[in-house]
Amino acid sequence: MFGDTRETETILLPALQAGLEALKASECVGKLYVFHSSLPNAEAPGKLKIRDDRKLLGTDKEKTVLTPQSTVYNMLAQDCVGAGVSVDLFAFNNAYIDLATIGQVARLTGGEVYKYTYFQADIDGRRMVNDLLKNISRPIAFDAVMRVRTSTGVRATDFYGHFFMTNTKDIEIASIGKCRGVNRRVPDSTRTGYGKEIELQLMVDIS
C-alpha cells in the first residue's frame, strides 16, 4: 500500500491513541502490539527530538538522555491503564529511537519492549517470530490491581516493575501473566523494632 511513498516522517502517539479509542469504543480490554522503527518526528502529537549525544555518556548529564523528554506518552499510558489496555512495543531501529520516552507507554501499562537493532530477517527473524508467538500464546488477564499487605509497623516502601500507581498502595496493571514480575522493597524488620519475622500478603484483583 505504501511501497512507493516518499513520506519519511513518522508518527506514533496518534496511532496509539487510535488503537486505544478502538478498544474503548468496543467496550473491550485488550493489548496493542506496536511495531515501530524510527523516532516520531512528524508535526503531530508525540513528536520527539534527537537527544543522542554521546558526549554526555559517562558524565553527570548522562541521565538527561535516559529519562523521558516528554510526558505525553506517560499520560497516554495512564489512559490505557484506566481502560484495561496494555501495550507491547517491538522496536526495529537502525538509529536513535528514544526508548526512554516511547517505552513509557509499555512500562506503565504492564507491557513489554522487544528491541531488534539493525534487524536482519535471516539473522533476527526467528527470534522475533518466537518472541511474538510466545507473547500472543501465553495466558494473560486484564485490568488487574495488586496490593501488598504487611504486618503492623512494617510497610512496602518501594515498587519496581512494569505497572502504574495512583496511590502508595495499589499497583495497577493493564495486563498480567505468569511471566510478569513486580518487586517490592520492605525495610529490614530488625530496624523497625518489630522483630525478625514479618508477614506479607499479596492480593491481586482481576476485573
TrEMBL record:
Q: Which Gene3D superfamilies match?
A: von Willebrand factor, type A domain
Task: Return the GO cellular component terms, semicolon-separated.
Answer: COPII vesicle coat; endoplasmic reticulum exit site
Domain of life of the source? Eukaryota
Q: Which Pfam families match?
A: Sec23_trunk (PF04811)
Q: Where is the Sec23/Sec24 trunk domain?
A: 1-136
Q: Tell me which Gene Ontology terms the entry assigns under biological process.
A: COPII-coated vesicle cargo loading; intracellular protein transport
Query: In the record, what terms sit under GO molecular function?
Result: SNARE binding; zinc ion binding
- What is the protein's given name? Sec23/Sec24 trunk domain-containing protein
- Origin organism is Anopheles maculatus
